[in-house]
Amino acid sequence: MADTPWNSVWITGASSGIGLELARLMADEAPHVAISARSADALEAAAASHAALAAYPLDVTDADAVKATAERITAEAGPIDLAVLGAGTWKLMDAEDFDLAAVRTGMEVNYMGVANAVAALLPGMLSRGSGHIVIVASVAGYRGLPKAVAYGPTKAALINLAETLKAELAPHGIKVSVVNPGFVDTPMTRDNPFPMPGIIPARDAARALLSGLEKGRYEIVFPTGFVMGMKVLRLLPNALFFWIVRKFILTKAK
Ligand SMILES: NC(=O)c1ccc[n+]([C@@H]2O[C@H](COP(=O)([O-])OP(=O)(O)OC[C@H]3O[C@@H](n4cnc5c(N)ncnc54)[C@H](OP(=O)(O)O)[C@@H]3O)[C@@H](O)[C@H]2O)c1
Q1: Could you tell me the keywords of this UniProt record (predicted)?
Q2: 197-203 contacts: CB < 8 A, separation 24 or more?
Q3: Sheet strands (E) in the chain
């Protein structure tokens, strides 16, 4: 095993996609990698493939279950040094089909799922004066984009949460990172009916994520070219941004 700063790692959203690939890579980096999601079978199958991986099935919207899981991992593998909070859901939705239940689910899973984990992790990390919380957001949180009514706002909230936590927790010895992926080929994006420029395989995304963690980055982005374009979009004045959305994004998203 590589010389690693982590003994006990927790990854949520690890039954598929980026989280599963990260778990597979992380299994060579840390002796204890706890993997969570709702699909117990997928977690058990991953855990059977590597001695470092252990399955902790979980619905991140259940705050009590999240707390109990963090306590179980701590008891069985030691205090959690690194938590990658990646459980997430995406539903394509046009503004004219505004579906309140789906908007609520997006917020419950993507935002409150992370908040539940942060609440479970903080007491231990604060008392030890160490730990690293990694929040998986998205470039979709940079600005409001078409068809992302039930998704973009949840990721914008996570980007804001990460900034707040980073500033306030640094003096307590706790690191915070935010991961803002562009398009990654996973079950989440497989049925998207629109072009996904620069899309990369989940394995490449996980490699980039791990590399960012090893370098101690605050914001970890991939694929770089596409994300840089999205960062430019973020800096544009509103009138120009909305013109670009009308002219180039809305037409392609139809
Ligand atoms: N793919 C992309 O292009 C892209 C771009 C930007 C950001 N992201 C973000 O990256 C993260 C990983 O997504 P992915 O692309 O790897 O998609 P994915 O393969 O669909 O993974 C989503 C993961 O979240 C888990 N999950 C969903 N709801 C959950 C719940 N209530 N409780 C616990 N786990 C739950 C899923 O497992 P179960 O269904 O088994 O619970 C799965 O493990 C997400 O936060 C996503 O928003 C992805």
Answers
A1: Oxidoreductase
A2: 197/226, 198/223, 198/225, 198/226, 202/17, 202/18, 202/20, 202/21, 203/21
A3: 8-12, 32-36, 53-55, 82-85, 132-136, 175-181, 184-185, 200-201, 219-222
CA angle 113, 81, 168 (to 5 degrees): 65
pLDDT of residue 36: 98
Terminal-residue alpha carbon distance, the chain:
49
Is there a contact between 146 and 250 (Cβ–Cβ < 8 Å)? yes
13 within ligand 1 shell (Cβ under 6 A): yes
Please state the atom number of ligand 1 nearest to the C-alpha of residue 39.
Answer: 40
User: Is the C-alpha dihedral spanning 28, 34, 36, 39 positive or negative?
Assistant: positive
| Backbone phi and psi for residue 35, each to the nearest 5 degrees, phi listed first | -120, 130
Quick check: bond before 223 cis, omega within 30?
yes
Write out residues in the chain with pLDDT < 50, as ranges: none
For ligand 1, atom 47, the nearest C-alpha belongs to 88
The pLDDT assigned to 252 comes to 60
> Domains, the chain, ranges and CATH?
8-253 (3.40.50.720)
CA quadruple 74, 77, 78, 79: dihedral sign: negative
Q: Which pLDDT belongs to residue 250?
A: 83
- Quick check: is 151 catalytic? yes
Q: Are strands 132-136 and 82-85 parallel, antiparallel or unpaired?
A: parallel
- Is the CB of residue 188 below 6 angstroms from any atom belonging to ligand 1? yes
